[in-house]
Amino acid sequence: TGHAIILHQNPVEMLKAIGDKLTALHIHSTVPNMDLHACPNCVYYGERVDWDEFYNVLKDMDYDGTFNMELAVSEKLSDSAISTFYHFAYEVAKGIVLKNK
Fold first, then answer.
1. CA distances from 5 to 9, 10, 62, 63, 101 (A)
2. How confident is the model at residue 47 (pLDDT cuts 50, 70, 90)?
3. CA distance 63 to 47
4. How far apart are the C-alpha atoms of 65 and 8, rounded to whole Å?
5. Is the pLDDT of residue 8 over 90?
6. Which helix (H) or strand (E) holds 36?
7. What is the Cα–Cα distance from 13 to 42, expressed in whole angstroms?
8. Tens digit of pLDDT for each residue in 53-80?
9. Which end of the chain has fewer CB atoms within 10 angstroms, the N or the C?
10. Contact 8, 52 (CB under 8 A)
C-alpha cells in the first residue's frame, strides 16, 4: 500500500486491479515520494486511503495470503515506548480487520 501511495496511486484501485493474483501483502501508510512505513490512518496527505474499503475488497476476493504491516519505529525510543508503539499498531490492524467482520 505504501508503494502505491509513493507512486501516486490509490491502493484500493491497485488491489482491485491485481485481484486474485495477490499472494502476499504488507501494508503501511506514507506520503507521496517518501517511504515512511507508518501505521494506517496515522499519516495524512490529500486523499486518505479508505482502509475499510481496502479490507472489504480483500474480503470480497477471499484473500487468504499474508496480511502484515511493515512499520518503522525509532531505535531511539525506550523499550517501553517501542512496546507501546507495537501494541498500538496491533490495535490499528485489528480495527481494520474486525470492523469489517
1. 5, 7, 24, 21, 26
2. low
3. 25
4. 25
5. no
6. strand 34-38
7. 20
8. 988 898 898 888 888 888 888 889 999 9
9. C
10. no
Q: How many angstroms from the chain centroid is the CA of residue 89?
A: 10
Average pLDDT over residues 42-55: 78
State how far the Cα of 5 lies from the Cα of 24, in Å rounded to an integer.
18
d(CA 84, CA 94): 15
Query: What backbone torsions phi and psi does residue 97 show, to the nearest 5 degrees?
Result: -75, -50
Residue at 81: amino acid letter = A
Residue 24: strand pairing partners: 66
pLDDT of residue 96: 79
Q: pTM above 0.85?
A: no
Q: Is beta strand 34-38 parallel, antiparallel or unpaired with respect to 66-69? A: unpaired
* Grid coordinates given for 56: 472489504
Q: Which of 33, 24, 30 has its CA nearest to residue 64?
A: 24
